[in-house]
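Work Package 3 committed the consortium to producing structural models of liganded targets before the mid-term review. Because experimental data for this complex are still outstanding, the team generated a predictive model from sequence and the ligand definition alone, so that downstream docking and mutagenesis planning could proceed in parallel. The input record is reproduced below exactly as it was submitted to the modelling pipeline, together with the SMILES string for zinc ion.
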Amino acid sequence: MESISVSHVAHFSTVGVAQFCIVDNINPIHESYDLKIVFPEGYPKEIPTVTETKHTIPRDPDFHTYDDGSFCLGSDIQLKGVISETPTVSGFVSKILNPFLYSISYRLKYHVFPNGGLAHGETGLIDDYEQLFDVKGKLSVLSVLEALGKRKRVANKIGCPCHCGKKLGACDFRSSLIKWRKLDKRRWFREHLSKSFSPVKIPKRKKRRPKVSKKPVKKNS
Ligand SMILES: [Zn+2]
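The resulting structure, written out as tokens with the ligand in place, is given here.
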């Protein structure tokens, strides 16, 4: 059995169904799936969608699969970043789809994800962006996205997401944002921020609460 090759996928640059086999040399898994892959018109800026059509993979957030069988392949910015580096069909397959299918197949076979698994939903997104942007905490992730949604000159005035206490414009951290800015327009980042995250209430000032020992709750009979 062979792994996915370009010839398998070259004929469905817009929409198509294909059988995929995943092979990994360390823990070989041989599996095939019927997939519908759609490369949107806006590719590589827009992310392709992949749907598993035979219901082999549970349509469950735990398997990063939505009710309609489409996959949650990863966070938008991570995917856009990988795709922008190799904006080809084979690049998408080898760098995004193949690893995704491998990890799902591994989970189906061994009941755990190969690398401990990723959280899904907003928590997964924040975990992912913390790594991607090299920051800690939801607030920092959101302020990176806020910065990416503004003109550089305006973004430089916000507090730096790296917790240095300076303005973004006064910290080297701003140069790490250049590569993300290239991925899309400022409006996209603003929409991503408002659509994908629940708002955070910023505490005015943290006061240390005295530790209160929990009293056992009396049961009302
Ligand atoms: Zn900083």
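Reviewers should note the following from the model. Confidence is low (pLDDT under 50) at residues 1-16. These observations will guide the Year 2 experiments.
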